[in-house]
Write a structure and sequence with these properties.
- This protein is α/β, with parallel strands linked by helices and 310 residues long.
- The protein has 2 domains: 7-119 and 232-307, D-Maltodextrin-Binding Protein, domain 2 (3-Layer(aba) Sandwich); 125-227, D-Maltodextrin-Binding Protein, domain 2 (3-Layer(aba) Sandwich).
- It is built from 11 helices and 13 strands.
- The protein has helices spanning 7-21, 49-52, 54-64, 76-85, 95-103, 154-166, 183-191, 202-211, 242-255, 258-263, 293-302, and strands at residues 35-40, 67-71, 90-92, 108-116, 122-123, 125-130, 145-148, 176-179, 197-201, 220-225, 229-230, 233-237, 281-286.
- The strands form 3 sheets. A 6-stranded mixed beta sheet has the order 2-1-3-12-4-13, with helices on both faces.
- This is Phosphate/phosphite/phosphonate ABC transporter substrate-binding protein.
- Residues 1-24 form the signal peptide.
């Protein structure tokens, strides 16, 4: 089954980019106009991409000699379809959205996956509840209003649905599902009591929202953790010129490390460097398509209809 694509969301994302959400203006023809279009699936709904992605955009421009335009989207499918249609040149995916893009015909190659300093390139999904909730484990989610992130989210939907099924709960009928749109919205909806329980990536609970003062200590409780998940990759379009592709490999396997970015003059010190919207991410590690076979196995186990090839 082909993934249902939100064409309106893609059009809106491109319109936002054209109206000034990029680091530079340029032709709409991708590499033909000397401009690379860079997009990211939305981990957070309420961020300024020109600030969060400013450093990595400067690095890409420095290493490739191309202008970079950040294509902002609030929809996972818009980024997937942008890669499928060739309207996006470089994309930061979640593991599942990368697999879905490949399954739906995107001619792309993963370059690097995010890593925290000294840590393996993996992360986790958390199942969370409000601090005063009587729920103590994932079996307590049955019959509750549960926040997910997006059907194309790995830690915000795919791995959680596998966990619910393992607990004997149908993720579509055994709970009242709510798609929050971003990991931040899912966490904050649980914290405020709008959802009885929810799922999100561990960093959103542990560091990102607390670091921004949006989540107070103890405001939510973690009652379930997934097995390690391959970290989010950046992928590039295979039809980009060979020299541009080789320079992008240089960016995401060698130069996109906070200490290296300081050496290159991209940012003043590692405390003020960002390679993605999560400030805890130190850089990227080389990655291959087979890295995401774990995700494909969970797709098969959950019989997720979106995972089927077009």
């Amino acid at each position: 089954m082909r993934l249902k694509v939100t064409v309106a969301a893609l059009a809106g994302a491109i319109a936002l980019a054209a109206s000034g959400c990029g680091s530079a203006s340029g032709s709409s023809g991708g590499d033909d106009g000397g401009t690379l279009r860079y997009a990211a699936v939305p981990s957070e709904q309420n961020i300024d991409p020109t600030a969060e992605y400013g450093d990595i955009i400067k690095l890409i421009e420095k290493d490739t000699g191309k202008k970079v335009r950040f294509v902002r989207s609030t929809d996972y499918n818009a980024v997937i379809e942008g890669m499928v249609s060739g309207k996006i040149d470089i994309a930061e995916f979640g593991p599942l959205s990368y697999v879905l893009a490949k399954n739906n015909g995107a001619k792309i190659t993963p370059i690097g996956s995010m890593v925290e300093k000294g840590q393996p390139p993996t992360y986790q999904s958390y199942g969370i509840v409000p601090k005063n909730s009587p729920i103590t484990d994932i079996s307590g989610f049955k019959g509750k209003k549960v926040c997910f992130v997006d059907p194309s989210s790995t830690s915000g939907y795919l791995f959680p649905t596998a966990a619910l099924q393992g607990a004997g709960i149908d993720p579509k009928t055994g709970v009242t599902p709510v798609m929050a749109g971003g990991h931040d919205n899912s966490v904050l909806s649980v914290a405020s009591g709008k959802c009885d329980a929810g799922f999100a990536e561990n960093a959103m609970v542990d560091t990102i929202l607390p670091g921004k003062g949006k989540l107070k200590p103890g405001q939510v409780r973690v009652v379930w953790k997934s097995a390690p998940i391959p970290q989010s990759p950046v992928a590039m379009r295979d039809t980009l010129p060979a020299d541009v592709r080789s320079r992008l490999v240089q960016v995401f396997t060698k130069d996109a490390q906070k200490d290296r970015m300081v050496q290159l003059g991209i940012c003043p010190d590692t405390g003020h460097c960002q390679v993605t919207s999560d400030a805890a991410i130190w850089g990227f590690a080389p990655v291959s398509d087979s890295t995401f076979d774990t995700v494909r196995k969970v797709c098969a186990a959950t019989k997720n209809e979106n995972c089927a090839k077009a």
